[in-house]
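@channel anyone free to eyeball this complex?
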Amino acid sequence: MLKRLLPRSLFGRAIIIVVAPVVLLQVVAAVVFYDRHLDQITRRLARSVAGDIGFVAAALTRETDNLARFHILQSANLRLNLSFTLDTKQKLKAGPLPNPGSPLEALLIRTIDEGLELAFTIQNRPEKKNYLIQVAFEGGVLRVLVPHNRITSATLGVLILWIVGSSLLLLAIAIIFLRNQVRPILRLADAADHFGRGQDVEDFKPSGAVEVRRAGDAFLRMRDRLDRHIRQRTEMLAGVSHDLRTPLTRLKLELAMLHDVPAATAMQADVDEMDGMIEGYLAFARGAAGERAVDTDINALLAEAVSDARRQGAVVDFATNGDLQGRLQPLSLKRCLDNLLGNAQRYAEHCAVAASRDGDMIEITVDDDGPGIPEDEREAAFRPFYRLENSRNQGTGGVGLGLAITRDTVRNHGGDVTLGEAPQGGLRATIRLPA
Ligand SMILES: Nc1ncnc2c1ncn2[C@@H]1O[C@H](COP(=O)(O)OP(=O)(O)OP(=O)(O)O)[C@@H](O)[C@H]1O
Ligand SMILES: [Mg+2]
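replying in thread with the prediction:
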């Protein structure tokens, strides 16, 4: 449940880890402050107002002389930041206290009520920013204007402004910093992804935090090791194949001289086959050496392979669906298609090529109506120099490298090739490439 609510990206999670505790802390601090501090301040302020009013009322009660009362009022007005007027002609219509508009006001009324021993009414007048308090007084009504700022403290607004403001500032800083931290990780992931598809990652440079940089360096070292390993393997095998050609040629010559030995013909065929294998491997090793991946129109590539096959007498249907683009090694991939089409031509009569997009993959199928490959031999058919029994028996040419090379190439592109059964009953080869 919680897992589904939390963000899935590293960026989102890091933001929460950084920001959540701070915001929580501020909210708790604000609530405690509001509850305790503000409460107390308001109570104190209200009490002091009630005290002032009570004091003035008591002083007025003591004097009956109008002039003396006038002097008391004057000096109270001057010194108390309250404005007193005495109305001796009216009587206070003391009703119930007004409904408080806010918890703060309720607290205010209650506190004044506690502090003042006289009957009073209170009226909030927001437009004049004051309270009008009328106090019942034996000689009439004592009216007091209490400015709002004598009773409420302005700190609450400021506090909230600070909390919201500093939280937003913190969020902004966290976003800027964390985005910069996440970017190198994404770059590393991209580089690894491209390398997996056989594309260049020359422009990748490890950056960011020490750990990310370490991962980047490790990736680069791994890439170099893999590159070196592949190159070494290919070069070594190419060297061996190349060196085998000389003794093989000598063997061929010697066999050719043995006219009257019956076994020589069979040996000649074996040597020819070996020669073919070596040729095939050398061709592959030459081709595999470092072709660059470029943006390629796969439809055009397919059309070219199909027309090549038709020129060699194959009957090929070709259907494609939509615009298919991919970043790949065109020559290597063309060789794969030539291999598959060559197989179809060799082992079947008709063949059908189709291509379409499937999500973020491109799917190419090559179907034929030949004998197909039994299910338990399909994996084996990808092994280098592997040929099915019937292919050997019928003496159909080929050394058994085609499918092995095809799988190698397609996997280097980050895709895969599989064998299955075609609707026509023959073999279906399916190539899936990342688009
Ligand atoms: N379309 C097909 N129909 C039936 N069998 C096939 C088909 N394609 C391949 N095979 C079988 O799989 C084996 C391996 O195929 P692969 O393309 O690797 O080698 P090859 O065609 O014999 O030789 P090469 O392609 O190197 O010239 C073939 O020898 C053949 O027995
Ligand atoms: Mg083949």
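from a first look: The longest strand covers residues 350-358.
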